Amino acid sequence: RIADCRRDWFFKLAHRLTDAYDVLVFETLNLKGMSKLWGRKVSDLAFAEFVKILEWIAYLKGKIVRFVDQWFPSSKLCGGCGCINDDLQLEDRKWRCACGRVNDRDDNASQNIKRAGIAALNREGVRLASASSLCLKLESHGL
Hints:
Number of helices: 5
Distance between the termini: 21 Å
Order of helices and strands: HEHHHEEEH
Number of strands: 4
Radius of gyration: 16 Å
């Protein structure tokens, strides 16, 4: 029953996201590594199942789903100057770059993933009418 409820929620969320956005960019996650850190909680989320559902719904609606490599330094890359903070630790939620910019780890990573997704699409020859269509706050969608 719980698995069915979760799957239903995944389909509803996939439809909401693909109705709201033409392009969705995600960071590829090392789920096995994350489960070593946080245990069964990670596998209980069934993120891989959600991604498969999202890709299928996006395909049916003619939307684009792209992934940024897990080794892309999305959190460590300063969104202002492009410097990489190799000293950043997982518990560091905010950090100041040498350029003076204060970066919130999650907001900075999302902007860097967005830029990497746009760059990948440009390399593929896909032209976007508006890069702002990639702006996505997962919190507003229940994630």
